[in-house]
Amino acid sequence: MIFRDIISKKIFEQSGYIAPEQKGAIKMDANENPFSLQEPLKKRLLEEMGKVNLNRYPEAGALELRNRFARYYGVKKDMVMLGNGSDELIQMLCLTLKGKVSGVLVPTPTFVMYRIIAVNTGNKVLEVRLDENFDLDIEAMLTKIRATFPSLIFLSCPNSPTGNLFSRDKIEAIIKKTSGVVVIDEAYADFSGETLLPLLKKYDNLVFLKTLSKLGLASMRLGFLIGPRDIIAQLDKVRLPYNVNCLSQIAANFFLDNHDEFSRQVLQIVKNRGELYLRLKEIAGIKPYPSSANFIFFSCAFDADRIYNKLAADGIIIKNFNTKLTRNCMRVTVGNSKENKAFLKSLKSAVSELGA
Ligand SMILES: *Cc1c(COP(=O)(O)O)cnc(C)c1O
221, 155, 220, 219: which is closest to 189 by C-alpha? Predict the structure, then answer.
């Protein structure tokens, strides 16, 4: 195949991001919000969408919407940029900040898209393992920073898949010691009740990522980058025009208009997380880790692949992390009570079958 001779080896050798599709399955693998919107609210959204001029491009700068979100996040005007999901913003960061050394530093395990996007944009990926508590190994991180001058450092806070927050003093030490830009990805911050956004007043090499995907609007692909204006001005040169379509822009306004409803759902998910954690702890051979997000990371005393397959056979899809770094570990998204019950039932039966 001639294509094989043209394409970069780094891209050719990848397997690609695989999102499993199983009709009718209970999806507990992608950290979506399990609740749907009440019918009157949904109807209102669809009515707004019905007014769209299909023949026209969406509002290019989406200035008003950006300023609305700036107010929502408590930052100054022009400090917010919209993306087609925060994945697109990660891609823009990797393209724009591809410095002379082109290094992207990430702790592991973390959100896999940092690595995939960094590689696909021609960056070199530098990895440092988290410590035994899944916190940042600050000495190893600083050593790597001194040796390689990465242009970008991604810190998911809370971290996926482990669910914990990193120590704030370690994060600040990294921000102070790097000459590159630190990205704090707060995709799950709403479930932790904490944000590091106020650090924007203290440092100028810091940006934040937020998304509506984990809050109930995954279908609409809406992500936000919050940071200093001069960084955003550079990113804006790389952004494709009209990157956020009309329907997504309407959904973003809808989110702000109905913020109370989305907040209620977050509270319910946090409550369900507490119960799910306790139930998991009761199962012999299963060790759940405390979570500040809308999912729970757990290890099991058996072959995780077999557990995963048994759950899948029962129509329950979770995320399998059974690799060398996270042997026999899995991640389950907190569902509604019916989903959590079905998951626990299936897990218990799998565990007893495998001879706990
Ligand atoms: C889900 C997720 C994202 C991607 O969100 P989208 O807005 O759907 O692209 C980014 N970062 C982390 C850590 C995530 O878990």
Answer: 155
